[in-house]
Automatic annotation (TrEMBL):
Database matches in PANTHER family: BNAC02G40300D PROTEIN, REVERSE TRANSCRIPTASE-LIKE PROTEIN
Domain of life: Eukaryota
Domain RNase H type-1, first and last residues per copy: 224-322
A GO term for molecular function: RNA-DNA hybrid ribonuclease activity
Coiled coil (UniProt feature): none
Family annotation (InterPro entries): RNase_H-like_dom_plant, RNase_H-like_EbsB-rel, RNaseH_domain, RNaseH_sf
Organism: Morus notabilis
Protein name as it appears in the record: RNase H type-1 domain-containing protein
Length: 327
């Protein structure tokens, strides 16, 4: 059978697809175990053995993204999308007494930054803190990292890493002996490409003269958001104006994420939160990130997986307003 098709079968077992054949095979061979840790005996059915033999391909792209943090073992489960192999290594043996992602979270559901930096190396701590968490207690989810929307495709199984960013990382290693993280390099290249295609997508042909800013209706608040991205974190900011163009709110914060698209979405989530605390009821949020704004016109499953948790939080926060608009 085609190896790519068998890999798809293996992915469906890992992701616990509701398909009848997956339920039958899982009941007989997995018995509650994780597919990535299961073995196949020579006497087992080919329906089980063949998908098991594709685990090497699946392990290169499968990652368990944190939702509520329960049932994830951060020493064994592949759960950090921005690390090679998606796994972390403890800095010292004492850290092994903690094994669940929930042990790294504060009561608020945010990362316990001090504990994360204590348990992991600098590179791993940055990668862990870059994972955007949802405050809605969503379940953990397996994602397929080679695709934008996290859905497995046969084509993506054999896709090659071919971009200028990857070539640049290769040259940095060869000529400057600088350490490179291929997984992180590919991820950033993918995000940059998506942002590029959004920027040069066909635009509205409406004459520029008719696109001039129009005054807000009384009672409306316009909130402009932006971010400044650093090596290990970002600064996000929001400025709100009323219908008379008076500044009625300014706010800023630091977030542990150096990925531009994620930082832009964090800024939008932050703007929604501070708008709620200021009692605004009708708001329009403006961002210069086309991908961030576009995500609000798509379902959560169709937006990039790296911002999915933030988008779901924003959808929940929107319910606190009478009217919201994104542009």
């Amino acid at each position: 059978m085609n190896r790519a098709f068998l890999t798809k079968c293996g992915w469906e077992m890992l992701a616990q697809s509701p398909s009848l054949w997956v339920k039958v095979v899982a009941e007989k061979y997995l018995r509650g175990r994780n597919f990535l840790g299961a073995e196949a005996k020579p006497s087992d059915s080919s329906f089980w053995k063949n998908p098991v033999h594709t685990r090497d391909l699946i392990e290169k792209g499968a990652c368990k993204v944190t939702g509520n943090g329960r049932s994830i073992n951060f020493w064994k489960d592949p759960r950090v999308p921005f690390l090679n192999g998606f796994k972390t290594v403890p800095k010292y043996e004492k850290a092994l007494i903690y094994y669940g992602v929930s042990d790294l979270l504060l009561h608020s559901g945010a990362w316990n930054e001090n504990r994360v930096r204590d348990f992991f190396s600098v590179e791993e701590a940055v990668a862990v803190l870059s994972i955007s968490l949802s405050r809605q207690g969503l379940p953990n989810q397996w994602i397929w990292t080679p695709t934008k929307n996290s859905e497995f495709t046969v084509k993506s199984t054999y896709s090659r890493l071919s971009s200028m960013a990857i070539w640049k990382a290769r040259n940095a290693k060869v000529f400057q002996d600088l350490e490179a993280n291929p997984q992180k390099t590919f991820f950033h290249a993918e995000m940059q490409y998506q942002e590029y295609t959004q920027t040069f997508a066909p635009r509205d042909s409406t004459p520029e003269a008719s696109k001039r800013w129009n005054a807000l209706l009384p009672g409306w608040i316009k909130v402009n958001v932006d971010c400044s991205v650093g090596q290990q974190d970002s600064v996000i900011a929001a400025v709100a104006r009323d219908s008379s163009d008076n500044i009625v709110m300014t706010a800023s914060a630091r977030v542990n994420n150096p990925i531009p698209l994620v930082a832009e979405m964090e800024a939008i989530r932050f703007a929604l939160k501070v708008s709620i605390s200021n009692g605004f009821t009708a708001i329009t949020i403006e961002s210069d990130s086309a991908m961030a704004i576009t995500s609000f016109s798509a379902s959560a499953t169709n937006c990039p997986w790296v911002i999915r948790n933030i988008k779901l939080d924003c959808d929940f926060l929107k319910q606190s307003f009478e009217i919201t608009d994104f542009s």
